[in-house]
């Protein structure tokens, strides 16, 4: 397909974006604009560097760390994110965590194919009035962490309250 992604940054071997050491892709572009967002500079799509999906894949897979995809809003660049996740799953055995401001029901309805390739989705827009710095891997109490299993049916389990 050779889609392109606008990339805000790629962080190698981080422990803050999911369980264990991971390589994190921060995409630019967000149409949700949560008040209190700490990545406002990435709201404009073209604030990031334009890269091919293959270039992003190579950067994320330079080592054996699992993958996290955040933003901005990754689903704003859905075709390229879908292609990237599919490549990762076809070529590696790495897990993929993805953060989105959309709720899980919206992801199921509008981005269902993605659920075949991601292992964990952290959903929900950041809500400043529900901010909680004690939560693992999320910024506000409304956000939930879902484990996704596709074998062959898609099964979604809320694992937000399981210690990680």
Key traits:
164 residues; 8-stranded mixed β-sheet
Can you put this structure into words, describing what you see?
It is built from 3 helices and 8 strands; from the N terminus they run E-E-E-H-E-H-E-H-E-E-E. The protein has an 8-stranded mixed β-sheet. It has helices at 53-60, 78-91, 104-110; strands at residues 4-14, 22-27, 49-52, 66-70, 96-99, 120-123, 144-150, 154-158. The chain is 18% helix and 28% strand. The chain is an alpha/beta fold.
Number of helices: 3
- Main sheet overview: 8 strands, mixed
Count the beta strands: 8
Distance between the amino and carboxyl termini? 36 Å
Globally, the shape reads globular
Can I get a quick summary?
This protein has about 160 residues and is α/β, with parallel strands linked by helices. It contains 3 helices and 8 strands.
């Amino acid at each position: 397909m050779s889609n392109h992604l606008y990339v805000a940054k790629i962080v190698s071997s981080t422990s803050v974006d999911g369980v264990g050491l991971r390589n994190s892709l921060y995409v630019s572009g967000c149409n949700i604009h949560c008040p209190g967002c700490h990545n406002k500079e990435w709201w404009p799509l073209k604030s990031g560097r334009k890269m091919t999906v293959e270039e992003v894949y190579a950067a994320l897979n330079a080592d054996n760390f699992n993958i996290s995809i955040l933003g901005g809003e990754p689903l704003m660049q859905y075709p390229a994110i879908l292609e990237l996740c599919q490549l990762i799953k076809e070529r590696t055995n790495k897990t993929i965590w993805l953060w989105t401001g959309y709720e899980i029901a919206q992801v199921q309805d509008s981005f269902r194919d993605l659920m075949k390739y991601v292992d964990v989705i952290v959903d929900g827009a950041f809500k400043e009035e529900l901010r909680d710095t004690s939560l693992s891997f999320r910024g506000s109490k409304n956000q939930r962490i879902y484990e996704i299993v596709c074998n062959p049916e898609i099964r979604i389990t809320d694992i937000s309250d399981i210690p990680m």
